[in-house]
Specification:
Elements (H helix, E strand, L loop, with lengths): L5 E9 L1 H8 L3 H8 L4 E7 L2 E7 L5 E6 L4 E4 L7 E9 L2 E7 L6 E7 L2 E8 L2 E9 L1
Antiparallel strand pairs: 1-2, 1-10, 2-3, 3-4, 5-6, 6-7, 7-8, 8-9, 9-10
Bound molecules: retinal.
Amino acid sequence: PASFSGTWDMISNVNFEGYMIALGISSNLRKIALKLKQRKVIEQQGDLFIIKTLSTFRNYTISFKVDCEFQEFTKGLDNRHVKSLVVWQDNKLVCEQLGEKKNRGWAHWIEDDKLHLELYCEGEVCKQVFKKS
Ligand code: RET
């Protein structure tokens, strides 16, 4: 399978607004966040990942091992504590984020040299695509 490692720049971001509303993010923060060109910097070593979401306004970093549950605090996003678990589903990296919000999680995969990310929360789906920088 393709490696996720590298620097990836956002080229599309569909329904980020709906996802942020589902998370209960304030309209002030949503307005700022919507304008950001996000960048993902990913370091993958086998099943160990560090995924950095970078922007001029705010950064967010998670690190995890596939199949190992971890506590995640979504600092600077909706500031919630969730219990997260990332697993491989075929060539997709799929995360479930258990907590106050139902059906919360994300899926990452690589297709045609692009990094795809779907973000889920309470029935809202945000679709983001990144190209290698
Ligand atoms: C930003 C800017 C501040 C407001 C919000 C943000 C959202 C970040 C998100 C990151 C998701 C990261 C994932 C990493 C794992 O692969 C851009 C930090 C709301 C939603 C899913």
